[in-house]
Amino acid sequence: MSDAPLHLSVLDLATREYGQSNTEALQGSIDMAVRAEQLGYERIWVAEHHGMPGITSSAPAVLLSAVGAATSTIRIGSGGVMLPNHAPLVIAEQFGTLRALYGDRVDLGIGRAPGTDGATAMALRRTDRLDVDDFPQQLADLIGFFTGMEESNPLSRIRAVPGYGDVPEFWLLGSSGYSAQVAGALGIAFAFAHHFASDNTEAALALYHQSFRPSRFRSEPLALIGVQVVTDEDPAVVEEQSAPGMISFIRMRQGTKPEPVSMDEARAYQFSDLERRFIAARTERQAYGTREQVAAKINDLVESTGADGVIVAPGAAQARYRHQALEVVAGLHGDGRLVRPGVAVA
Q1: Distance CA 231, CA 277 (A)
Q2: What is the pLDDT of residues 211-267, one digit of tens each?
Q3: What is the pTM (predicted TM-score) of this model?
Q4: Is-contact 51 16, C-beta < 8 A?
Q5: How far apart are CA 47 and CA 77, in angstroms?
Q6: What is the distance between the alpha carbons of residues 209 and 240, in angstroms, rounded to a whole number?
Q7: In the chain, what are the helix, strand and coil shares in percent, each to the nearest 5?
Q8: Helices (H), the chain
């Protein structure tokens, strides 16, 4: 028995580097998709974030339309759309439009976090009710706008046009056991945000597999994990390219929404001992390092989690090193170095 290769995907945040315009950042996202397609990646997802100066992916459906126009074979989708921020009908119409334009390449990944702070979430939702208690019903409504609803649902007579009858591949995204169990119960695919919530990955994927019930969408479970990748054969480059993102993350943890950090500022920054310990803990289970170290980290994670694939989240400060991360992982994949243990190749 030989081992089957992993599903290989990319998560892009439409990163705005220091000194870049929003136009340049969004063009960089399109360039990332084109490069991922050239390298043979199965899918590229864009995330929804709001009010963050260094991230320009606040409107996934709009960005995906541009990505779809620039590519032809790679799957495109949301990683994810934050459902509580939107009316389910609007999402169904948006992704129905994308499906009409780009066909079966379009995935719809859904999350339940706000993707921003409370004030911005309230501005998006136009309400001060910011809990997620109604998420299961919102999700059921969203799926129903594509597939049809029970007549008892007061929304059952509404048609999403485009959308109704053109069902995308549904994914639930999360960083908790709750999302894993919901995805399993619905019989849809699941992606875990290991790239920023690495403590609970094994437990969440175990819950997903335990709770999975075959559905009209999937007969078997399918689980991916996000993994942040910064790679170079020179450890000093890895450290330097990681530093701006780490500084931004530290500042966000302190309650600010920082502007992009320049390379000069990052080189001059003096990390405290506490910050260095925080960085070490944050990167320990991510794929930072040389090509061989990246291979080892990814394979260790796949073995411990039982994931069917990885979503590469390039974490370098500069675009050429983010592209380098895609190239290194694709090369490892092409060489048969990244596998799902114990899964036979057909």
Answers
A1: 20
A2: 999 999 999 999 999 999 999 999 999 999 999 999 999 998 888 888 999 999 999
A3: 0.93
A4: no
A5: 9
A6: 38
A7: 45, 15, 35
A8: 22-38, 60-70, 88-102, 118-125, 135-147, 177-186, 201-211, 235-253, 263-268, 273-283, 291-305, 319-334
